[in-house]
Specification:
Blueprint lengths: L5 E5 L2 H15 L10 E6 L2 E6 L2 E7 L2 E4 L1 H7 L5 E4 L1 H7 L5 E2 L3 E4 L8 E6 L5 E7 L3 H6 L4 E8 L3 H5 L5
Length: 165
């Protein structure tokens, strides 16, 4: 069963350049070029960006955010949070990330940044979330909620993005 994107359309070169500039500023890397096929559309409650027919980004509060499939494809090195193996099962089921489960984090993370969460053993992306504290605080604090989970392995976007047309 495939799922149709609503309002799907190809982006203009100027719009693609704006996305590339936002990503370059945040991640200091080029993930695709202006010649790539870049489209935008709505998939249920998600506004998503497709690059060469794959859903690799979503737009949240006018910010370009990696999807898990995008993280697997492009493997960025910034805005990461590493959790211990005891937290993996909870994070993969959509739980918010608590400070005691964090063993490492990018120190450049600021509150309200969108970050990606990976496990300590394989460093594979598990979730995408919004930081509720800075990267420094995540590394040093032992109490409190650190990240609000917004997209995780096995959620609706993860399952739908492989079936989109």
């Amino acid at each position: 069963m495939s799922v149709k994107l609503r309002n799907r359309h190809r982006l203009k070169n100027k719009e693609i350049k704006n996305i590339l500039n936002e990503l370059k500023t945040k991640f200091d890397s080029d993930f695709f070029d202006v010649d790539s096929s870049v489209e935008i559309g709505n998939l249920d409650q998600f506004k998503v960006i497709l690059v060469d027919e794959e859903i690799v980004f979503m737009i949240i509060e006018d910010k370009v955010v990696f999807t898990l499939r995008g993280l697997y494809k492009y493997n960025p090195k910034e805005h990461f949070v590493v959790v211990d193996m005891g937290a993996v099962g909870f994070v993969s089921k959509g739980a918010d990330i608590m400070a005691p489960g964090i063993i490492d984090a990018d120190i450049n993370i600021q509150k309200s940044d969108y970050v990606w969460i990976c496990d300590e053993k394989h460093r594979k992306p598990l979730a995408v979330g919004m930081a509720l504290m800075t990267g420094e605080e995540m590394k040093s604090k032992n109490t409190g909620k650190a990240i609000k989970n917004i997209h995780y392995v096995g959620d609706k976007l993860w399952n739908l993005s492989s079936q989109v047309t």
